[in-house]
Amino acid sequence: MTPLPVLLTPGRAALCRSAGYGLRGLLGGNTLAVVLAAFCFSILAGEARAEASAAGLLGVLALLLKWAPLIFQGFLFNLLVSVLSMLAGTVLGLWLGLGRVSQFAALRRASSAVIQFFRNAPWLVLLFYCMFLLPFSVTLPFATIPLPDAAKAVIGLSLPVMANVAEIVRGGVRSIPLEQWESGEALAFSRRQILWMVILPQCLRRMIPPWMNLYAILTMSTTLISVVGIQDSMTLARAALVAEGRTELFIPMYLMLLSWFFLYCYPIARWTTALERRFQVRI
Amino acid sequence: MQQDPAALVVLSRVEKRFGDAVVLRDISFSVARGKSVCIIGPSGSGKSTLLRCINALVPVSSGSIEIDGIEVNDPALDKIALRRKVGMVFQQYNLFPHRTALQNVMMAPIHVLKQDRREVEDRARRLLAKVGLAEKEQAYPGELSGGQQQRVAIARSLAMNPLVMLFDEVTAALDPETKKEVLVTIRQLAEDGMTCMIVTHEMGFAREVADHVYFTEKGVIVEHGPPREMLAHPREERTRAFLDQVL
Q1: Which residue in chain B has the smallest CA separation from A180?
Q2: How far apart are CA B105 and CA B99, in angstroms?
Q3: Most A CBs within 10 Å: which of B51, B94, B140, B170, as the mutation test of the A interface?
Q4: Residue A45 belongs to what H/E stretch?
């Protein structure tokens, strides 16, 4: 676990500042400053309602530090769920998106219906559906595969991801001029060959920015799984708060969690913007 | 329609409609092996559509197109087999922008004809040299001028060893200097005995290269004949009006 600046005690802040240039370069100095300021402010605000003293402030920080490792484990679990859902959603979404641009009208219509349904359903409701409708285990002829809650959650989150990836694929394929199809056909390529060798390689770079954007949104949405009873960072943070029973801990604790997500997702957003800008110039 | 035994492409009573609009009407002619024909006429007269019908990029509405024994107007047409015999070069080059010039030329022989990669590479290099672009083989289409891209496109089509080449206003998007290099390439090809069907607005080029010229207007062949004769002394009033305009 890397020491995040927000977890450092004031005495080490100077050290952090001198070592923080790489991070600041990635995040943008202003944004990082705002996050830090908000964090300090929230601690002070919590303090103001309790006894305002330096000792109290240190006490809150000490409590945060005490719980941070456990909650961070939960955070890593959130990231694992996000990666798995993204993986499954991307593979499924690619095929769904290709179905959407198929030359067979029936397949096109069916894909479109699936995409529209899952894109316009609330993620949390989909998650509930998967939790309650999927069986505890799947019995295949050769083995019985247990389906733990976490697996169901991954499935539940991958469905809207799938639909959104399909839409990205459709948009990418449609963005390539029809002349590319024609010249491929004139060279005696089959439709499938044109799709995989001519069209998809060209739209890949255009699809990456929206795909990364979707991943950032998914990562933040993984906290939804706490609602359906899975032990993620949100659940653990809540449990820690209950265990301590100190109201002034509420805001700093959630802000700590929030800043982790922020520190993970914001660089992705910056990178996405940079890629978008670069691809715009190139094409 | 007389059946010429040497004919490679035979069109008879070809008609193409888009909805109610008749784009081609009763087109009949044939192109003998090794000969070049030019199709001229005002924009929107159906010239491009005619070429597209020949390699089945658009289906004909009625009539028959036969290429080396393959009937194009057939629901069971094997389009891939047809297009192996017919090369086509487009007005906008349509190279694959993510592949180098050499890769553009190599792709179809490797993946469609399943030929050996090294042999294909040798042939692709020779073809690029033939169109005068040996030193540009590693360039991406975006790094080439219009004329260079168009010559790569010609090499790309030739790599399939087609029986007939279709050129669809291939110099229309080029400036005068680069036009010339492309026209020289095509003329060389015709002189080497490639069967060519060329839709063009370049009358001087048509006069030099074509064995036969067809003038189309509003989807019908108004007049045809050997280029020097027809372009110098058109019989039809419409042909004369068109030629007065472009010459």
Answers
A1: B94
A2: 9
A3: B94
A4: helix A29-49
C-alpha R_g of chain B: 18
pLDDT digits (tens, 9 = 90+) for A23-72: 445 556 577 677 677 777 766 666 555 555 666 778 888 888 889 999 99
Residue B167 touches chain A, beta carbons under 8 Å: no
Euclidean distance between the first and final Cα of chain B, in Å?
32
Torsion, Cα of A180, A186, A189, A192 (10° steps): 50
Which strands make up the sheet holding B36-40, listed edge to edge? Answer: B86-89, B164-168, B195-199, B36-40, B212-217, B220-225
Q: Do B94 and A185 touch (CB under 8 A)?
A: no
Structure tokens at B22: 């008749």
Q: Tell me if residue A8 falls in helix, strand or coil.
A: coil
Average pLDDT, chain A: 83
Looking up tokens 């394929």 gives A173
Domain range annotation of chain A:
30-278
* A138, β-bridge pairs: A145
CB of B95 less than 8 A from some CB of A = yes
- Residues 6 or more apart in contact with residue A222 via CB below 8 angstroms: A78, A79, A81, A82, A85, A157, A232
| ipTM confidence score | 0.91
**Which residues in B lie closer than 8 A to residue A193 (C-beta atoms)?**
111-112
Top CATH class, A30-278: mainly alpha
Kindly give the pairing relationship between strand B86-89 and strand B21-32.
unpaired
Q: Is the dihedral of CA B184, B185, B191, B194 positive or negative?
A: negative
Tokens of A217: 């949104």
Distance CA A118, CA A126 (A): 8
Angle between helices B117-130 and B101-111 (to 10 degrees): 130
A254 vs B193: CA distance, rounded Å: 79
The partner residue sitting opposite B90, judged by closest CB among A183, A189, A193, is: A183
- pLDDT 10s digits, A154-199: 999 999 999 999 999 999 999 999 999 999 999 999 999 999 999 9
Determine the residue type at B54. Answer: I
